[in-house]
Amino acid sequence: MSSVQNLLLESLLGTKHVDNAAIIKIHARTVLVSSPGFNISPSDIRVLVNGFSKNPVQVRRDGLYFREKDYKCVRADERSLYAKKRIMLAVHFDQPGGPENLYLKEVAKPEPGPGEVLLKVAASALNRADVLQRWGQYSPPPGASNILGLEASGHVVTVGPGCQGPWKAGHSAMALLAGGGQAEYVTVPEGHLMPVPKGLTLIQAAAIPEAWLTAFQLLHVIGQVKAGETVLIHAGSSGVGTAAVQLARQAGAIPLVTAGSLDKIKAVEKLGAAAGFNYKEGDFSAATLEFTKGAGANVILDCVGGSYWEKNVACLALDGRWVLYGLLGGAEVHGELLSKLLTKRGSLLTSLLRSRDKKYKAELVAAFTQQILPHFAQDEPGSLRPVVDTVFPLKQVAEAHVYMEQNKNLGKIVLEVTPVP
Length: 421
Ligand SMILES: NC(=O)c1ccc[n+]([C@@H]2O[C@H](COP(=O)([O-])OP(=O)(O)OC[C@H]3O[C@@H](n4cnc5c(N)ncnc54)[C@H](OP(=O)(O)O)[C@@H]3O)[C@@H](O)[C@H]2O)c1
Description:
Largest sheet: 7 strands, mixed
Strand content: 25-35%
Number of helices: 12
Radius of gyration: 26 Å
Helix content: 25-40%
Number of domains: 3
Distance between the termini: 45 Å
CATH class of the largest domain: Alpha Beta
Bound molecules: NADP nicotinamide-adenine-dinucleotide phosphate
CATH topology of the largest domain: Quinone Oxidoreductase, Chain A, domain 1
């Protein structure tokens, strides 16, 4: 590193006073940095500028050009430019692997593009997808942020060009994301934002978008559930499961659940499940057939897959819809799945929300906002409510991942990004 860069790092970037800001004055043929006494000749300008950032910038006769993505120009005139580096803290990992790989890193702060809104994140909930992505088993869809986090709540900071929706700076909102929520700021297409239901905190709001939109989509768009039908919901105590039980009840259907402990089953029954079966201690398939007097479940919401296939098809009703949306129990199937499914005239349907296109998600968000959000309320009988198990500060993201991988949560794990009153 050259002496000029050293000078710069020590005098400017290193001082708490300017803290990630750069002040460069161009006067005559001399470049002055913020602290008096550091006069640097024009031939050193390029070295100086490179000292601010590893990213390429241009030096022209009329001034210094910083990449918009990395620096925000706070003030500029003919002689000087004051640029503040755009940074934020985000959950990061350098290598795929265990939770110990997670840490908070300073990264570039995003800027809203056309039709996008910049949200200052208050909270973001954890999903199994985050765990899989950390293990290197689930890449973000093309164009999505590499930062973890499929949902967030917070406040609108700025609105990008061409936005036509109702969002203004200061509005509180919750967002469905393809990634990027576990950071201080995130950009989101305006159509993927929803208002925070009255009476709900931003912590509760962060627990809604991914889990509830998934459950809504599985039940209504994919599973086409009807009043009076029986819906078997696996992992009933999961984020998605606790939402699906409430939505199935709301649709007039009869939700049954599977879960791995009596405590979880009791809690989900309080949310509206008609019955719950501990899959570790008994045969949920036989229990479902017994409950339905042999008819079976009209719809099965299945995030388990491989290990459940035979029991699923055995308790599927004639003309039933088996909706596969996760593979917690593996992806391998050995046996006569096709003939058993055919005998039931069953439909095997699959769904992934994250990789859907922006238009599909915007339509889903609009339908959910109109049909379901009005039914969220605090402590009103029969109202919908997000189930928050635990809140971790963002810096404890690794502990939050461990907690989820140990299947301890009943409902959602929320990461508090900025302190929520
Ligand atoms: N396709 C989509 O669009 C989409 C969207 C969101 C989520 N998902 C999927 O939905 C599932 C739930 O996600 P989430 O974030 O809501 O999960 P979560 O809150 O972490 O809950 C998952 C629960 O599943 C149960 N479980 C774990 N491994 C199991 C196994 N091998 N067999 C049976 N049960 C098992 C555990 O509860 P017990 O104690 O009861 O075992 C665990 O607590 C995940 O598979 C996720 O990938 C899919």
